[in-house]
Each structure stands twice: as structure tokens, then as C-alpha cells.
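Sequence only, no structure available. Ideas?
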Amino acid sequence: MLLIVEVNGFSYGQNTAADTGKVEFIQDKNVQALLDKHIEINSKAPIKGYRVKIHFGTDKNKAREIKGNFISKFPNVPAYEKYDQPNFNIRVGDFRTKLEAYKFLKEVQVEFPSAFLVQDEIEMPRLEQEEKK
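Reply:
I predicted one. C-alpha cells follow.
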């Protein structure tokens, strides 16, 4: 049996075979190209989230020392150095929710008591499936 469906000017064909239980979609190749382009653009777009700011000050060497200290204690958490004149900022983590960031803040405050939460554009978190590949 062949089922043809038209959506927004695109025709989609669907073959169904009751005895095999398989469904086959036939679509214009441009639809897949548009989907691929959409995925590519969105994968590069920054997303809003939270980080923990563990240091800010005018001394570049002190900022780098604190960043190195953090990395040695939390090697699996990304650390970012950013210069916002006149301060060097060290922000850590890529948290999508405030709750996740807050949990990590409490853990970090043992070593960095002046740490606090900030909203920031974060890196896209890696999916577990991607990490297993």
C-alpha cells in the first residue's frame, strides 16, 4: 500500500507492508539538506546557562594561578579565563540550570569561599551517547 501525504507543499510517500511491519518514507532530498543545515547552525549557537565565578581581579598571574589550582582539584570541569577590563575573570562549569550550578557552587566554596553564580553563555553539554562513541 502506498500512502502519499502533502505537508506545506512537500509530498511525502509512505510505503507500508502489513506483512513486514516496515515503513518507508520517501522525501525530497532538499528536506534532509535543510534539516542538516538546521542542526549545524544550532549546534554552533551559544546557549544560556550558568557558571560559577571563582575569581576576578586585575592581576593576570593571580587569575591563572587560581585557574590552575581549580583544574588540579576539579579536572573534569571546564575552566574559562575571560578579560573584562580591568578584571581577569575565572568562571567554571557549563550548567544548564541554576540548580545544577548551585549544587556545584556548594562543592567549590570549600576551596574557593568567595565563589558565586553568574549567568553566562555556556558550551553545549556533551550527550552521553556522544561520549560513548
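The chain has four helices and seven strands.
Hope that gets you unstuck.
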